[in-house]
Amino acid sequence: MNNFQYHNPVRILFGKGQMAQLPKQIPAQAKVMLTYGGGSIFKNGVYDQVKAALSSYTVVEFGGIEANPTYETLMKGVEIARQEGIDFLLSVGGGSVLDGTKFMAAAIPFEGPDAWQIVANRAKFTKAIPIGAVLTLPATGSEMNYYAVISRQETQEKKGMGNPLVYPQFSILDPETTFSLPPRQIANGIADAFTHVMEQYMTYPVRAEMQDRMAEGVLLTLIDEGPKMLANPTDYDAAANIMWAATMALNGLLAAGVPTDWATHQIGHELTALHGIDHARTLAVVLPHLLEIKKETKREKLLQYGRRVWQLTGTDDELVAGAIQKTADFYESLGIPTKASAYAIPASTVTEVVQRFEARGMNFGERADITPQVVGEILELSLA
Amino acid sequence: MNNFQYHNPVRILFGKGQMAQLPKQIPAQAKVMLTYGGGSIFKNGVYDQVKAALSSYTVVEFGGIEANPTYETLMKGVEIARQEGIDFLLSVGGGSVLDGTKFMAAAIPFEGPDAWQIVANRAKFTKAIPIGAVLTLPATGSEMNYYAVISRQETQEKKGMGNPLVYPQFSILDPETTFSLPPRQIANGIADAFTHVMEQYMTYPVRAEMQDRMAEGVLLTLIDEGPKMLANPTDYDAAANIMWAATMALNGLLAAGVPTDWATHQIGHELTALHGIDHARTLAVVLPHLLEIKKETKREKLLQYGRRVWQLTGTDDELVAGAIQKTADFYESLGIPTKASAYAIPASTVTEVVQRFEARGMNFGERADITPQVVGEILELSLA
C-alpha cells in the first residue's frame, strides 16, 4: 500500500426532504449567488424548493451554465458576483454546474490578470468564495471532492483544476430530485461513475486490499442498481444507491494509497473538446480499447476484476478477455456505444488528438506509458 | 436506504514516516499535552519519534492511561492540563489512550461541577481542546470518529460519549508502529474491528447496497489480512490493510443510512466493567450467541453475509447456521475464545448483567428487541 493523506470535510445531507436543512448550512447574512444550468431545475421543482428555503436571503441568480462548463460563460458570472459582492455560491444542478461554480469560487477573488491561468497552468490561489451544492444528477462525484473540469471554447480546450479551497462546505443529495432525469443522463451518470472507479482501480496491485474491496463494492453497486434505476427512474432505493455510489466513486477514498490511471479521461476530454460528445460517452469510447492495448501491464488487476466483479471463471487469458468484454458490454447495456464509429468520429481525429498529446510533452497512465503513440493505437482500435 | 448526514473532517496521514508531518499539524505556539498509556511507546521507539518531532514545542506529558481508560485516572490529567494552560492534546497510543484524551478534551474546559456527567448523562458541552492522534494499535476506529468509551472504577461502569467537538484534527497512522505489538493485542484489534462492522451490518436490509458492499469489503479485508498480520507482524502490507480497515470500520461511512445494532457492545461493556475482560474478547463472548438468539430477525442479512463474505452454499437454514458458525470460528482462529467458560465468568454474572439492563429501563438492538430477558438468554447460551 502506498502512503497517502486523506482529508474530506464535505458535509453530506442525504435523502428525502433534506432541502429543509439548507438554511442551517448557509450563514444568515450571506449574499448568495444561485448557480444553475439549462433550466431543468424549473421543471423538476428543485428551483422552487431552493427559493423557498432561501426566502430570508438576498439571492442573485446566474443560470445557463452548460454541460462541459465554459470559461467564457463562467466569467460572466464572475463579473456579476464581483459587482454584487457575493459571498456564498450555491450550485443547484449536476456536476457541470458544480464544476463551473468551483471555478467561479476561485476566480471571483483571484488577483491575477487572467483567471484562465487557474485552469491552464494550475495557478495558485489562496482565497475562494465558500460553496454549497444541491445535486440533481449522480455522476461526477464533484459534490464530495475539490476537482473541476473547465472548457474553453476559444481554444477548444478542456482541463482540470483542483484545490481544497473549493471543497463544497455541504452537499444536499436527495435521490427524489433525480426522478425526472431523461434516460440518457441517467445512463451517462452511471457510466461516468463506473469509469471513475476503473481509473483508480484498474492499474497494478500494491496489496491495498481495503481500497480494492471498496472499489469493487462501488462497481458491483453500479452494476446491480444501475439497470434498476434506468428501468424505473422513480425507484427511490435504486436512485439512492446510484447517487451514493457516484459520490463514493470520486471522494478520494478509492485513490488513497494506490496508483491511478486517468488516461481514459485525458483522451476523452479531447473528444469532447473537438466533437462535443457527452463526457461519459467519450469514456466508453476509450476505456475498453485502452484495456485491450494495455492488457499485459494491467493483467493482474484484470484477473482480479474478472473474478470478483464479474464472477468469471476459466483460464487466465479467458478471464482477461472476458473482463474487457464485460466492461464494453456494460456500457452498451446502458445504451452507450463503445465504438468511435457510432459517434461519427472521423479517422482524422486520431492524428489531431495525438498531436495534442505530443504538444503536452508528457505521458499518462499509472506507469506513464500512455505515450502519444499509444493514444493513437487506442483510438485506432476504437475506430476499427 | 435511510436518510443520513455524514461529515468527517479528520485528516488522515497514512504510511511509513508520516511522523515527519507532525509539526505541520499542530499550531506553532501550542502548549501540548502528550498523553499515552502504559509505556509501550518507550519500547517501540514512537515516544522518541514524537519528542523529536515536537522539539520546538512546550510539551507536558501525561502517561499511565489504562486500557478501558478510567474517569479517575483521566481527571488527574485534566487537573494538570488546567494548571498548565494546555491548548493542544496529542494522543500517542491505541484507542484507549485516544478515548481517554477525547474525554479530557471535553472535561478540561467543562464548566459544570461534575465532568462525569459528560459520560453518564451525555451532558452537553460547547468547547473542547483540539486533539491530534498518533495511532499505534489498529482496533477501535477512534482515530477517525468522535466517540469515546470511559469507565469509572468507583461504580464499575463503562459508558460511551460522542460529540463532533472531539473529532481528532488529524491522525497519523504508520503501520510500522504496530510491528512490535504482542499477538494478543493484534488479535484483539482484528476482532474489535470485525465486530464494529457487524454491529452496523448484521441487522435487516434497507436496500443500502452501497453500504452493504463497503461493510462486506471491510470484513473480507479483515478475514484475508488478519491471519497474515498475526503470522508475521512485520508484514507491512498486512499491517497497513488491517490498520486502514479498522479505521474504515468505524468512521461513520458504514452506519450512514442503515439501521445499527450495538447490543453486543452494550453487553460486552458490562463484562469488562464487572470482570476486567479485554474489550474485544467480551465481543467474541457475546456476538455469536446474540446471532443465534436473533437469527430469525436477522435472517435476511445472515443469508447475504453467508453467501458474500463466507461464500457458503446450501439451504437457507444451512446458510444461517454456517454464517453463525463461521463468525465464531473466526474469533477462535484469532485465539479468542467465544464461550464464557473460557473466561471463568460465573453463572451469577447473568443475573447481575440482566439487573443492570433492567435498571437502564431501555432495550437495545436495531429493533429495540434486546430486552433484559434477551440479554440473559444470550449470556446463558454463552455459558452453556
TrEMBL record, chains A, B:
InterPro entries: ADH_Fe/GldA, ADH_Fe_C, ADH_Fe_CS, BDH-like
Pfam hit, one: ADH_Fe_C
Any Gene Ontology CC annotation: cytosol
EC number(s) on file: 1.1.-.-
Domain Fe-containing alcohol dehydrogenase-like C-terminal: 188-379
Top EC class of this enzyme: oxidoreductase
Protein name as annotated: NADP-dependent alcohol dehydrogenase
Transmembrane residue ranges: none
An annotated Gene Ontology molecular function: butanol dehydrogenase (NAD+) activity
UniProt KW keywords: Oxidoreductase
Domain Alcohol dehydrogenase iron-type/glycerol dehydrogenase GldA: 9-175
Family: Belongs to the iron-containing alcohol dehydrogenase family.
Keyword Oxidoreductase: yes
